[in-house]
Amino acid sequence: MALLEVRDLSVVFSRKGQSPFSAVDGVSFSVQPGQTVGLVGESGCGKSVTSLAIMGLLPRRSARVGGSVAFEGTELFSLSDKEMRDRRGKDLGMVFQDPLSSLNPVVPIGLQVTEVLERHRGMARKQARAEATELLNKVGIPDPTRRLSEYPHQLSGGMRQRALIAIALACRPRLLIADEPTTALDVTIQAQILSLLKELVAGTETALIMITHDLGVVAGLCDEVNVLYGGRIVERAERHELFAAPRHPYTHGLLDSIPRLDAARGEKLSPIRGSVADNIPWDGGCAFAPRCPNALRTCVEVTPELEWHEGRLLRCHNPVQPAALGVGSKEAR
Amino acid sequence: MLRFVARRLLQAIPTLIILSILIFAWLRSLPGGPAQALLGDKWTPEKEAQLNATLGFDQPIWLQYLKFLGRAITGDFGNSSVSGLPVLQEIGQGFAATIELSFFAIVIAIVLGIPLGYLAARFHGRLLDNLTVIGTLVGVAVPVFFLGALLKFVFADELGILPPSGRQDVTINATTVTGFATVDGLLTREFDATWDALLHLILPSIALASIPMAVIVRITRASVLDVLDEDFVRTAESKGLTTQVIRRRHVLRNALLPVSTTIGLQTGLLLAGAVLTEKVFNWGGLGSLLAEGIERKDYPRLQALILLAASVYVLVNLLVDVSYAIIDPRVRVS
Ligand SMILES: Nc1ncnc2c1ncn2[C@@H]1O[C@H](COP(=O)(O)OP(=O)(O)O)[C@@H](O)[C@H]1O
Ligand SMILES: [Mg+2]
Questions:
Q1: Which residue among A48, A65, A217, A234 is best mutated to probe the pocket of ligand 1, counting the most ligand atoms within 8 A of its Cβ?
Q2: Ranges assigned E (strand) in A16-57
Q3: CB-closest option in B235, B242, B328 to A96
Q4: CB contact A254 to B (< 8 Å)
Q5: What are phi and psi of B282, to 5 degrees?
Q6: Least CB–CB distance from A167: residue in B239, B242, B249
Q7: Do the beta carbons of residue A223 and residue A190 sit within 8 Å?
Q8: Whole-angstrom distance, CA of residue B267 vs CA of residue B209
Q9: Are A66 and A75 a contacting pair, CB within 8 Å?
Q10: Number of C-alpha atoms within 13 angstroms, CB side, residue A224?
Q11: Of A300, A301, A304, nearest to A319 (Cα)?
C-alpha cells in the first residue's frame, strides 16, 4: 500500500468580490514509504497549496478542498480537527520556505523543538531537551546545547533551516514535505541543506515530497518527478527518464533554463518565454499553449488529458520528440 | 537588564530638565501673575510689586530658575503661593488619590481590553467581533466626563448601589498610612475601609478606563489578526500543537508587543482624563489642585505638578520598555 495516495485533489479559493480561483485541479500522485517525490513548477502553479492541502493547513474559510488524501489507507480529509492535529508533526512533518519567518521570533529555539516532542512523544521537558540537543546535533548545528537557549535572530539562515528540519523530523514522521526549503538561502548553503535532507531520508522509511521551482534541485534527490502547471500535473516520470528526455514542452523549457556545467561557452540559458501571468483556464484548451513553442491548433481548442505515453504520464497534444531533443525544439522557437 | 534600566533612568534626567525650563518660561509668559491673582480686588501696582518681592518673583527669570533647580534637587519645590504650604506636602494626598484612580483604570483597561481584543480577532468578522468594534468606536468617542456623569446618574443617583462621589465614606474614619485608601485599609486591617474605597473606585475608574480600554481592544485585535497570518503560526500548526499552546505561546506573545507600547502611551493620556473624572466624582486628587493652581497662577505648584506628571509618564514608559524587552529577545541585544 502506498504511504500517501493523493486522488483528484482540487483546491478552489473563494475571493471577496471576485470569481472563485482554482489553484489546484485534479492532482493525483502517490508516495511509497521511503520514496522521494518531486513537485516541480514555476511560482504560482499550486505547489504550496497542494502541500498545505495534504497537511490540512489551508484556511478553512476561503479554501474549498476536494478529492481525497489517504495516508496509510486513512482518509485524512474525513478526520476531525483533533485527529488531524494528532497526526501533524507526528506522522507528517513539514519544512517551509523562509526559515526566518517560519520560526517564532520570541520563543527560544529549544522550546520550539521540545514542544513538538512533548506534544507527540509524551516527553517531559528535561528529557525533551536532551532529545532536542541530539536532534540539533544530527542536523549539523554546532554547539547544540547553547543553541537551544538562543532565539531565531541569533542563528544564520542555514542554521535556522537546519533547526526547522530538526523540528519537522523530531517525531520521525513517515512523510516529510519540504516546500522550497532552499529558496530563501544563499547558493552555497542551498547545497548543504539539500545534502542534509538527502542524508536524513536516505535509508530510512521516511518518504519525502520535495517541492521546488528548480529542476536542478530534484535532479540529485527525487525518485519520481511531477511537473505542475496551472494547478495540474502536466508530466510525471521517473527522474532519469525525465532528465534524459523531457516530453512536455514546459518540462523541456524548465530544463533548458537550468544553468549547466557542460554548456558550451557563450551559450545563453533559454528561459521559457512569457510568464505564469499568461495562464488561461484549462477549459477550452491547454493552459500552457500561449507560451508553448510546439502549440498546434488543437492545443487552444481541446483540453489535453493526463495520459500514459511511452511509460510516463503526459498532458500534451504535441510532445517534444526524443529524437528532436535540443536541436529540434530550439529551431521550433 | 539592570544596566538597561539604569541607562534609561539617566536618559530621563535631561528630558526632565529641559521640560522644567519650558514650563518655567511658559508659566511666566502667561498674562497676569500670582500676585495679581492673590490680590484680586485689592490690586494696586505698589502692592503687586511688594508681593512679588516677598515671593521672589521680582528677580531675573534665569536666577529664579537656577534657585528653583537648586532647591528641586534637594526635593524642595517651594511653597504654594495660594496656601503657603510646601508644594510637595500639598500635592502628596492628591497624588495618592490620582495614582490610585489611574492605576485601577489602567488595570481595568488591560484586564478587560486584551482578552476582548483577542476574542474579537478569534471570531473575526462574526457578531462578537462586530459588536466589539462598534463598542470601541463608542468608547473612544464618548467624553470621559459625560460617561462619568451618566454612570453616576444611573448607578449612584437612580439605583443607589454605588457611592456617587469621594474616595471614602467619612463615617469610616480610616487611618491614613500611605494615602492609598485601598492599601491603607489592608495595612491597618481595617478591611471595611478597603472595601469602601473599592466601592468608591468602581464608577470613576470605569469612566476613566473607557478610552484606554477601547484603544487596547482595537490594538490587540489588529495585532492578533496580523500575527495569525504569520508563517510561524503555520509552522506551529504544522507541528500539531494544541490550540491552547498555539494561542498562548505563539500568537498572544507576539501580539502583545504593540499592545505594551500602546499601554505606555495611554497611561500618559490617562493623567489628562483623570482630571476630568476627578471633577465629576469630586475625587480630591491632583485635578482640583491643578485647576486651582491654574486659576491662581500658582507657579510653584504648577511646576511641581507638571514635572510630577512627566516623571510618572517617563517611569511608566520605562516599565513598558522593560516588559517589551522581556517579551521580545530581539530588543535585548541592541
Ligand atoms: N490563501 C490563498 N487565498 C487565495 N489564493 C491563494 C491562497 N494561497 C495561494 N493562492 C493562489 O493559489 C495559486 C497557487 O499558489 P501556491 O501554491 O502558493 O504557488 P506555488 O506553486 O508558488 O507554491 C497562486 O495563484 C496563489 O495566488
Ligand atoms: Mg510556494
A1: A48
A2: 18-31, 36-40
A3: B235
A4: no
A5: 50, 50
A6: B239
A7: no
A8: 10
A9: no
A10: 18
A11: A304
Per-domain residue ranges for chain B?
Answer: 2-74, 88-333
How many angstroms away from the CA of B204 is the closest CA of chain A? 37
Question: Can you tell me the distance from the alpha carbon of A42 to that of A45, in angstroms, rounded to the nearest whole number?
Answer: 6
- Residue of B228, B233, B239 to mutate for A, most A C-beta atoms under 10 A: B239
Nearest to B234 among A57, A84, A105 (CB): A57
CB neighbour class for B319 (10 Å; exposed up to 12, middle 13-18, buried from 19)? middle
pLDDT at A333: 37
Alpha-carbon gap, residue A205 to B109, rounded angstroms: 54
Q: Is B223 helix (H, G, I), strand (E, B) or coil?
A: helix
Backbone angles phi, psi at A29, to 5 degrees: -165, 165
Torsion (CA) A215, A221, A224, A225 in degrees, nearest 10: -20
Q: How far apart are CA A2 and CA B280, in angstroms?
A: 75
Ligand 1 proximity of A46 Cβ (cutoff 6 Å): yes
**Rounded to the nearest 5 degrees, what angle is found at the Cα of A95, between the Cα atoms of A201 and A50?**
100
- Nine cell digits for residue B65: 530658575
CA A92/CA A167 separation, integer angstroms: 12
On chain B, the residues whose CB falls within 8 A of the CB of A104 are 232, 235-236, 249-250, 253-254
| Ligand 1 site, residue A52, Cβ cutoff 6 A | no
A119 touches chain B (CB under 8 A): yes
Q: Are A230 and A279 in contact (CB under 8 A)?
A: yes
Which helix (H) or strand (E) is A67 found in, with range?
strand A63-71
Instruction: Give the CA count within 13 Å in the CB-facing half-sphere of B4.
Output: 14
Nearest residue CA, atom 3 of ligand 1? A13
ipTM of the complex: 0.89
Out of A11, A16, A49, mutate this one to test ligand 1's pocket (max ligand atoms within 8 Å of CB): namely A49
Q: How far apart are CA A28 and CA A19, in angstroms?
A: 25
State the angle between helix axes of A109-121 and A125-138 in degrees (0 to 180), rounded to the nearest 10. Answer: 110
Chain B CB within 8 Å of residue A121 CB? no
Residue A8 is classified by DSSP as E
pTM of the model: 0.84
Strand A207-212, strand A36-40: pairing: parallel
The per-residue pLDDT string of chain B (334 residues; one tens digit each, 9 = 90 and over) reads 788 888 888 888 888 889 889 988 888 888 777 788 778 788 888 888 888 888 788 888 888 889 888 888 888 888 888 888 898 888 888 898 999 999 999 999 999 999 999 999 999 989 999 999 999 999 888 888 899 999 999 998 999 888 888 888 877 777 788 888 888 888 888 888 889 889 999 999 999 999 999 999 999 999 999 999 999 999 999 999 999 999 999 999 999 999 998 998 888 888 888 988 999 999 888 988 888 888 888 888 998 998 888 888 888 888 888 888 888 888 765 5
Nearest-CA distance A164 → chain B (Å): 9
Ligand in nearest proximity to the CA of A63 = 1
CB within 8 Å of A234: residues ≥ 6 apart: A227, A228, A248, A250, A251, A288, A306, A314, A315, A316
For residue A97, the CA-to-ligand 1 centroid distance in Å is 14
Q: Distance from CA of residue B5 to its chain's centroid?
A: 21
Q: Does A209 touch chain B (CB under 8 A)?
A: no
Confidence of residue A276 (pLDDT cuts 50, 70, 90): low
Could you tell me which residues are beta bridge partners of residue A209?
A37, A177
**CATH number assigned to the domain covering B88-333:** 1.10.3720.10
What is the number of the ligand 1 atom nearest to the C-alpha of A52?
Answer: 17
* Helix B286-295 and helix B253-280, axial crossing angle in degrees, nearest 10: 60
